[in-house]
Amino acid sequence: MSVTSPTARRAGFDLLQHDELSAAWTADLPGSRTPHVVVGLPSFALDRAVYDHYGDRVPPLENRYLYVLLRAREPATEVVFLSSLPAPADSLESYLSLVGAEERSRVLAKSRLVSADDPSWRPLAEKLLERGDIVDELRRYVGGRPAILEPWNIGPAEEELSVALGIPANATGTSRCHLATKSNGRRLLRTAGVAVPEGSEDVTSPAEVVAAIRRLLRLRPEVKEVVVKLDDSVAGDGNVTVPVSTVTGLDDGRDDGLDDEMAAKTIGSLLPPWYVETLRRGGVVEELIAEVEVRSPSAQAAIAPDGGVTVIGTHEQRLGGMNGQVFEGASFPALPEYAVELGRNAYDVGMELGRHGAVGRFSVDFVVSRHSPGDTWKVYGLEINLRKGGTTHTLGLMRLLRGGSYDAGRGQFVDAEGRVACYAATDNLLRPSWVGRPPRDVRQRLADAGLTYDHSTGTGVVVHLLDCLRVDGRMGYTALADSPEDAAELEGRVVAALS
């Protein structure tokens, strides 16, 4: 990697964004006739502990973004897909099979797949920076045409690669990534007029977690659990639920005067050592919303270089893991009872982010609750993700395959033919007995069951993450349909066909 100083790197990136992004963004709008290049960069700028957690799943996660090849269907667009390892033939075929044979040939002719040939567990951008030959090749390929880099998120290596290539990024740089830490995100949500659960920001130790819980209980003595969140975490992996009784000593929320030092030791014992260490960089403590009915929707939007905001979707998120805080899949769109409100909130958040210089895709995670059916849903903003995420490839697939756009005023996606489009998706269909299962077996079983995506109807199942089967028996899919009920029915058939 280069030894460019952080100040020089940020200055170079910000200058490139200022001078080049607007023209590249405009060239990449649907229907554009300006020849340009889209460079897919599924590089994950994450804490090294997260890489240790995902391990051999990192290259398969990169290949989820092979859907970017479908952008080559636009007449003026050429695509480059970058990856750590060469894309497996089965994964590539899964995406190319989504279009007709003639169009498939055109997509391939206008696409380049470039691999760093490096299986190590670290950001793809770091690997590419060590390959001067690849950087030089890409610069020659772009050849002065408008080009836009599509990273998963931006860290120092991704910024440096952007500058080395001379290609602006459809993403917010490191000089502004602080806007969406968990602590700053709560503050920005409030500024944008979005309600947030009661809680505290800038918590840095178990002792401060105890103090935050005590403050919360003075305001909400009925709270039984809180969520502790690391400022810099993804997919819910940095979220831990903690019962307030660990601090109060009592299950009813009353404080019996449990010693602060003892309470802090108890909290510390509930958190892994790596978590306590990372918490020093900041986190939040907030009430766990508990009602008879609680859901976890999200909204996605994009900020243009001129600060304009477009809401591009809403989802019902499926959360799991030991604490029920880890993203495992989603259904599109969110329920009609609150989808429009989610979109309005996301728009307001995007305008606030844009005022601070943010650009590109972002999402807002919410929690909604009600005491009984028929009650009005209460909507709370939880956090802002100033990056792409677990719904990027699924939403991107639907938009590229069916055309059209999300109508935020109706809370629906209307495709190019005026039909409503829906889907259900996951990247966590996991069966330990599937370890080593051949991807071709999965695709054949789905074909035999009549589930393969049909480009003539715009419905069916698209599989992804097939190369993760060899790692831990995990795969993913997006079940596209014309109604939520049809999407759910497709999901059930997928599981049955593969069992």
TrEMBL record:
GO MF annotation list: ligase activity
Pfam family for this entry, one: ATP-grasp_IQCH
Keyword Cell membrane (UniProt): no
Organism: Nocardioides vastitatis
Keyword Nucleus carried by entry: no
Protein name listed in UniProt: Peptide ligase PGM1-related protein
InterPro entries: ATP-grasp, ATP-grasp_IQCH, IQCH, PGM1_C
Stored SUPFAM superfamilies: Glutathione synthetase ATP-binding domain-like
